[in-house]
Amino acid sequence: MSSEPYPSPLESAGDRIIVGRAADGDTSAFAVLVRRYAPMMRAYARRILPGSADVDDVVQDAFITAWDQIPNLEDSEKVCSWLMRITGRKAIDRIRSTRRHFDLSEMELPAPDRMAPPRQVEARAGIAALSDAITQLPDAQRECWVLRELGDYSYEEIADELDLPMSTVRGLLARARKDIIVRMEQWR
Question: Which residues are CB-neighbours of 40 under 8 A, at least 6 positions away?
Answer without folding.
Answer: 80, 84
